[in-house]
Design goal:
- The chain has one domain.
- By secondary structure, it is an alpha/beta fold.
- The strands form two sheets. A four-stranded parallel β-sheet has the order 5-3-1-6, with helices on both faces. A two-stranded antiparallel ribbon has the order 2-4.
- The C terminus is likely disordered.
- The longest helix is centred in the last third of the chain and has 26 residues.
- This is Fungal lipase-type domain-containing protein.
- Pfam families: Lipase_3 (PF01764).
Length: 261
C-alpha cells in the first residue's frame, strides 16, 4: 500500500517521500517496476529498510522485485536482523525501532556494509570446506535457511556473474525452474553446488534436476509461508500502538510520506 499510494500521489504532487520498514515486494521486473518508482519519486526520496531475515521482504518471489532492489542502492538499507534466523520477530515493529534508534541514515548504511562483509565470510567458509554442512544438521529449519541465505548472499556479492536477479534462496530456485539452471552461465558450478547442498541439508537427493528444484522450492516456500503469515499477524497489531503513530508523524512531517511496517 505504501509503495502504490506513493506512486499514485507522486503523479499529482511533487515532493513525495516513501519510507518502508519490512515491506514486501510490490512490482514485476518485466514491468520495470523499480525504474518506474524511481522515475516518479526520485531515488533520493525512497528509504527502504529491511532486516535480512525478515520473511516479508522475501515475498513474493522472483520475478517480483522491490523499489531500490540492488544492495548497492544508497537507500536500500538492508541490515542484520535481531534474530539470526528467518523469524516473525524480525518483522516486529519494536525490533525495527531498536535497529534505527539513535542512528542517522549514514550509520545505518554503514551497518549494511558490515553485514555484506559477514555474508562473504559465510560464503568463503562454505566454499573452502564441506564440513560446514554437518554443523547445521538437526537445527531448526528456519536457522538452516538463514545459514543458507547468508551463503547465497555471499555468493552473489563475491561471484556476482549470472546472479544479478537473485536476492534469496527461493528466488534462485524460482528462476532456475522457470529458465533452467543454464541461465547462470559462468557461476553455474557454484550454483549447482549450492543447490545440491541445500537439498542435502533437507535430506533430499543432491543431483540437480527440475524435479529436485520443484520439491526443494515447495518445501522452503511452505516454511516461508508459515513464517510470513505469523509476521503479518504480528504486524497487524501494531497500527494502534504509540510507536507506530510516532513513526508516522515523523514520516509525514513537512511533506507526504507513506509508511509500511
Amino acid at each position: 500500500m505504501a509503495n502504490l499510494v506513493a506512486l499514485y500521489v507522486s503523479q499529482v504532487r511533487k515532493n513525495v517521500l516513501l519510507y518502508t520498514f519490512g515491506a514486501p515486494r510490490v512490482g514485476l521486473r518485466e514491468a520495470a517496476y523499480d525504474q518506474v518508482v524511481e522515475a516518479y519519486l526520485g531515488e533520493e526520496n525512497i528509504y527502504r529498510m529491511s532486516h535480512n531475515f525478515d520473511p516479508i521482504p522475501m515475498i513474493p518471489v522472483a520475478p517480483y522485485i522491490h523499489a531500490l532492489p540492488n544492495i548497492k542502492d544508497r537507500n536500500n538499507l538492508f541490515v542484520a536482523s535481531p534474530v539470526n534466523s528467518i523469524s516473525m520477530d524480525n518483522h516486529d515493529t519494536a525490533n525495527y525501532i531498536k535497529s534505527v534508534s539513535g542512528k542517522t541514515w549514514s550509520d545505518i548504511r554503514s551497518d549494511k556494509l558490515n553485514e555484506g562483509y559477514l555474508n562473504k565470510q559465510y560464503f568463503s567458509s562454505w566454499r573452502s570446506s564441506d564440513s560446514w554442512l554437518k554443523q547445521y544438521f538437526g537445527r531448526a529449519l528456519n536457522a538452516q535457511m538463514a545459514t543458507l541465505q547468508r551463503i547465497l548472499q555471499g555468493l552473489i556479492d563475491t561471484v556476482g556473474i549470472g546472479l544479478t536477479e537473485v536476492a534469496t534462496i527461493l528466488d534462485l530456485l524460482s528462476i532456475a525452474i522457470r529458465k533452467g539452471i543454464e541461465v547462470y552461465q559462468i557461476s553455474k558450478n557454484y550454483v549447482l553446488k549450492f543447490i545440491s547442498d541445500c537439498a542435502a541439508m533437507f535430506g533430499m537427493a543432491v543431483e540437480v534436476s527440475k524435479q529436485l528444484l520443484l520439491k526443494l522450492f515447495r518445501k522452503m516456500m511452505t516454511e516461508m509461508a508459515i513464517a510470513a503469515k505469523l509476521a503479518i499477524a504480528t504486524a497487524s497489531k501494531v497500527v494502534k500502538s504509540k510507536e507506530f503513530h510516532l513513526i508516522l508523524a515523523a514520516a509525514t512531517a513537512g511533506s507526504i510520506g507513506y509508511l509500511m511496517i
